[in-house]
Amino acid sequence: MNIKKIKELVELMNENDLTEVEVEQEGVKVKLSKKMPGAVEQVVTPVAARPEPAPAAEAAAPPQKEQRNVKEVKAPMVGTFYSAPAPDADPFVEVGDVIQKGDVLCIVEAMKLMNEVKAEFGGKITEIRVESAESVEFGQVLFVVELV
What we know:
This protein is mainly β. The chain contains 1 helix and 11 strands. The chain has one helix at about 5-15; strands at about 20-25, 30-35, 40-45, 70-75, 80, 100, 105-110, 115-120, 125-130, 135, 140-145. It starts with a helix and ends with a strand.
């Protein structure tokens, strides 16, 4: 990965108020993190140098509560999470709401584009794991939904 690509990532972070970006390309992994306003830390790691994670041992797993029939709604991209269509509007969903497939759950803004996140299944919202205007990462859990 060349310096130009890294500078583009820094610009992307600054334009979208991101605190961290991680990209893997051509066998090199680049992770950029802001520690304080304006400061950017760069970590470049060759992918082949990373040790493979050990298989998870059943005994090492902490005991869990009885698992309900739940699914997670994850962020489809890096961006800013918005729980409502406008700052003065009611949120799309709240804990306890019953949702149907296709319902809008939130908006994730990326690169000045507002992307609606729609439910892919019906159920009851049991948790909302992010606050409005908070930065989210790709794959970060936004909502926990109990299937009904």
